[in-house]
Amino acid sequence: MHSDKNKEVIDDGEDIEVADDINQFPTGLGRKYSPVVAHDVNDSAVVEMTSIHPGSSSSFPKHDLKKVKVGVQPNMASEEREESAANHNINGPQRESKLELFGFDSLVNILGLKSMTGDQIQAPSSPRDGEDVTITFEQPKPTADKSGTWMGVFMPCLQNILGIIYYIRFSWIVGMAGIGESLLLVVFCGSCTFLTTVSLSAIASNGAMKGGGPYYLIGRALGPEVGVSIGLCFFLGNAIAGAMYVLGAVETFLNAVPSAGIFRETITRVNGTDIAEPITSPSLHDLQIYGIVVSILLCFVVFGGVKMINRVAPAFLVPVLFSLLCIFVGIFSARHDRPAGLSLESFKNNWGSSYQMTNNAGIPDPNGKIYWDFNALVGLFFPAVTGIMAGSNRSASLKDTQRSIPVGTLAATLTTTGLYLVSVLLFGAVSTRDKLLTDRLLSATVAWPLPAIVYVGIILSTLGAALQSLTGAPRLLAAIANDDILPVLNYFKVADGHEPHVATLFTAFICIGCVVIGNLDLVSPTSTMFYLVCYAGVNLSSFLLDLLDAPSWRPRWKFHHWGLSLVGALLCIVIMFLISWAFTIVSLALASLIYYYVSIKGKAGDWGDGFKSAYFQLALRSLRSLGANQVHPKNWYPIPLVFCRPWGKLPENVPCHPKLADFANCMKKKGRGMSIFVSIIDGDYHERAEDAKAACEQLSTYIEYKQCEGVAEIVVAPNMSEGFRGIVQTMGLGNLKPNIIVMRYPEIWRRENLTDIPATFVGIINDCIVANKAVVIVKGLDEWPNEYQRQYGTIDLYWIVRDGGLMLLLSQLLLTKDSFEGCKIQVFCIAEEDSDAEGLKADVKKFLYDLRMQAEVIVISMKSWEAQGEQQESVEAFSAAQQRVASYLEEMKEQARRDGTPLLADGKPVFVEEQQVEKFLYTTLKLNLMIQKYSRMAAVVLVSLPPPPSNHPASFYMEYMDLLVENVPRLLIVRGYHKDVVTLFT
Asked: Could you tell me the superkingdom of the organism this chain comes from (predicted)?
């Protein structure tokens, strides 16, 4: 006994002993397991299990198989011939395929996941139908340092949101609207950005995210045309906003230090006010000169990259926060000879609104030309809550977008909204109405100890917001260019891990051009409109994805609902028209023109957007839109073809096994998707056409009774094999063809001596492989739970062969059902005794995390394969199977000698080699032993389906399968097809 050496690594890091009591098994099982390292980096894998090569035939207990001459079928693929030759070379040095029975498929290699720890992940393309596709990743490339939630999202959003509006216009808004309506104004505008943040959080946490921020999310949800049109508008909005912030900083500086002006100031006379003092404003030329200089300096900082920006950002933000502290300290310590001080009387007097006419400087004037009401204040205040996309704009520079964007953006939104609400109450209680309306810098007036602190805060807050705008805009433009939709944007492409210098220069050019204009009264509303168009696009994207609820929609952010997203989108549209219906039309027209241009000149791309998923659910109407190409993994729905005819007989008037309908429902998320129930009638079609019609009506009625969304089909054929072959070739239309074949495991074939079942069963599996259909075989169908039978325990996955993620997706779909919602998923991986078990476990957990799948990863370190006494039944089953195989082989040899023909089985020549049969039997036995040991309490077990060896009789394959499923009450045997059904990307 070596209990200290046989270990299992489980999810909490604790070492657990692995089967010491398997010493009773033959010594041929003592070979080590070792991972097979893929030669090609792109031939990635998921999990690899290994098998033992028995030393010789003498390792069998007593039923030795006799030598049979080995041959290789002439039609075997070259790879199979090479593998077969390697496996047959028993005595010489060899490199075996572990788990021999699965060797004909490309085994999954967990070491392929190592590259996932890199930051840059190559997005899977949309391959042509028939291509071999796996979940692959490129080698990680050296990239720049990544930012976390605090520096990468929260601080940029805070700097962008907390801008000049708060300092120079917020107290004036409180005086004009009153405390009551000011609170309503903040809540109204804040609700729009809050709901947009919730929608953004849902989409951003639905998978790995590349650069481009909201453009990437909108484009992947609503399609490339909508994504590019909204993305370019949002880019222009960011570039123009950068100019607005620069001009705000320069104007504040010149107001604070008038002597710094080069040209004469413009003086606005104040009439009709109690305070008869002039309001000065800087010269346009001063604004232009200082604005250009500041813009150039900020661009140099942006050229330094994310690392430089993260170093400079605190220098802008810390003084801003300090100035806010000084404002609040000054409010609470206000002297009566300055503002009135906090008083209940001022609070009451300032509660109601005081909308009136003002001059161009905002000073009340009965002869003024501007009348202010609630709608006008919405347009003035709303820029103070924009900036929530500042963090997502830098998505390519974040360590973990799925966590940082929701947490950082929501924290910044709630922080600033709370600050605004508190400030409304304090400003309304600290000063009189006249002071609120005439002192444009009341925040500086009340600041303690000096107003200069607030001037510094204003300048740095606006410069910080400008810096974030000039940082996000070039990355947004580069992301649009990198998607290669518009050839005209190819100049702005940038390699992964590099800074978008060309895009930064273009952004600086736009920013400086707007600064030179000097007066942004006509441009700034358009910038706000572009923000609102983007916010509406994010909300609509979340609304569509949440409403369709495709299997790929599994956001980590759980606090979302399509209703909230719809309300957020409607709020954006309402605010746009409240601000200015003219600018709303202009911005929507510009977005429409870009959309039209992209649809004409742009390159087509399939990003798995939500509209394709909507087309899928609209079925026939959308069949032409879907086309006949491969469905994108994000839009993939299981379409099971349920093989109703059981291996045996059903009760009268029961056209389908009742539990098959229950299982078909378990393969759908919230009932979405289509099932095709097929039964085969033996005979001639002309003679049994009416029987088939009656059987189809009966089956349709039964499906409706079982509340299973699907259609019924009856096929008449000479036999089951011919009927199934026709079905698998012709069933379905376009992308509505069935992609998964579901049938019951033929457990009765030996019990009832049904000798025709093995050949039929193997033929069906081979037909599915040729037709590139996935296969799900249910063992223990009679015990499958219905919707009212709650299951507890685990759903255990033994993921051996690459399957495009089908087994993982099936386990997730099971969890959506009431009967399995109390279960947890366990993924088993097998490692060699001296392999890096912890590293392997971390790789699998990272892989599952990026797939948004909750599962416990268990790594089993295999050191010994001796049998354990408590599993004597499996050992007896193995010995019996071994004896039967030897008997089959002897009978075939005897028949071949009598007939003078080669070795035949099922009417076909076979080529059997005893060592290979040994390895196959040992493979299934060891896998069965492991399932029994670790999955005794499992509600259901999923294991990869080994393909039938082309050179073995069908009865041999049934022996392998019987040994695999022995003593496992409820088992799903799964084989994927060469197409991805899951994706890491949003």
From this structure: Eukaryota
